[in-house]
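Lecture notes, continued. The same structure-token format from the folding unit now serves as the input rather than the output. Read the line below as a description of shape only.
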């Protein structure tokens, strides 16, 4: 009788588990809409209000089609099923994190981009992008407010024997206040990306426009250039040497920007920040060049120790952030140590996100009002 009861209990638990699984599969809300970063007029990929993504790929001769999400496809694959007219379709097994994600399509072993989506530079190549609606997406939305200008500049680089590219954001008031000089943030991308990342994937210009319109920040210039991060292969970060990029940034780009834009050209009004590997670069350069930058920001890019900073009086702000799915305790503990040592240090953790652009968008939103306050 006892064995019979145990068997009934096991069967009951299996039935409950199966019922829960079936219910979970049946609860996908069919309110799918085209992603906001699709090519003009393209219906797929689509996303729903829960964060699921649905793909539709035309490959009539293919034997298998898989969509790989995340930087380099690190988040695994969604296997598509062949339907009518050579179209393959499939929906992610679960909801995705809010915000922007890279992805690519593998067709019979070959890697391709989705023709329905816009492309963004990541993983050292142009990848397809998808935007999952976020509950807080209003802060980076395109609104009817005065807009700044993002312009491409080419600056001479003797150290690399070429002209190099940077993008410069100037706030809406820059063209109107001809006598005013503006502080500057030098903002770096991560590994696999380039100088287009912060404005394309990060929407940093829209975040700035909205914060300025709301009166939450003092306007400042942002300069974004290629950090030479992709010279090293993934997994070989320890062998990366900062010297080459440090020369380009400090000895070539900053003088060019100060000569061609109305900047407040001094250490007190100059900041450096970066995400991921760009944060690693920021850490090294700010420590190496204490007379150049006064505000430091590492976004999922490590931490500072009080003993690393030789002259505390030169540092106005240290901002450290990451996603809650990363290592938030490391960021919080580092800021606690910095505060105890007398630094103006701030931590921020993006809830529900990992090593991804929603973390860095939110981080920048928290960082910007702290910069150049006096």
């Amino acid at each position: 009788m006892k064995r019979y009861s145990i068997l009934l209990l096991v069967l009951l638990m299996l039935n409950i588990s199966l019922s829960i699984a079936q219910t979970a599969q049946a609860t996908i809300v069919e309110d799918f809409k085209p992603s906001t970063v699709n090519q003009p007029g393209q219906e797929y990929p689509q996303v729903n209000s829960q964060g699921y993504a649905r793909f539709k790929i035309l490959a009539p001769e293919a034997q298998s089609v898989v969509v790989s999400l995340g930087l380099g496809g690190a988040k695994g694959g969604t296997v598509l099923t062949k339907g009518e007219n050579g179209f393959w379709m499939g929906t992610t097994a679960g909801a995705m994190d809010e915000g922007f994600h890279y992805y690519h399509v593998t067709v019979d072993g070959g890697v391709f981009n989705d023709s329905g989506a816009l492309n963004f530079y990541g993983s050292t190549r142009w990848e397809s992008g998808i935007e999952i609606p976020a509950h807080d997406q209003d802060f980076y939305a395109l609104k009817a407010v005065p807009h700044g200008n993002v312009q491409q500049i080419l600056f001479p680089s003797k150290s690399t024997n070429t002209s190099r590219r940077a993008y410069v954001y100037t706030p809406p008031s820059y063209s109107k206040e001809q006598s005013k000089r503006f502080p500057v943030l030098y903002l770096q991308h991560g590994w696999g990306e380039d100088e287009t990342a912060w404005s394309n994937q990060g929407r940093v210009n829209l975040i700035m426009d909205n914060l300025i319109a709301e009166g939450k920040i003092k306007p400042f210039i942002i300069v974004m250039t290629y950090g030479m991060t992709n010279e090293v292969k993934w997994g070989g970060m320890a062998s990366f040497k900062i010297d080459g990029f440090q020369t380009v940034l400090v000895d070539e780009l900053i003088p060019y920007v100060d000569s061609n834009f109305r900047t407040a050209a001094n250490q007190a009004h100059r900041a450096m920040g970066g995400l991921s590997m760009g944060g690693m670069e920021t850490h090294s350069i700010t420590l190496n060049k204490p007379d150049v930058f006064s505000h430091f920001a590492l976004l999922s890019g490590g931490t500072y120790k009080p003993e690393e900073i030789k002259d505390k009086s030169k540092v106005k702000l240290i901002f450290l952030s990451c996603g809650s799915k990363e290592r938030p305790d490391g960021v919080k503990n580092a800021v606690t140590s910095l505060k105890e040592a007398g630094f103006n240090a701030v931590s921020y953790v993006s809830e529900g996100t990992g090593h991804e652009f929603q973390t860095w968008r939110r981080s920048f939103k928290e960082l910007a009002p702290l910069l150049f306050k006096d």
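Point for the exam: The longest strand covers residues 99-107.
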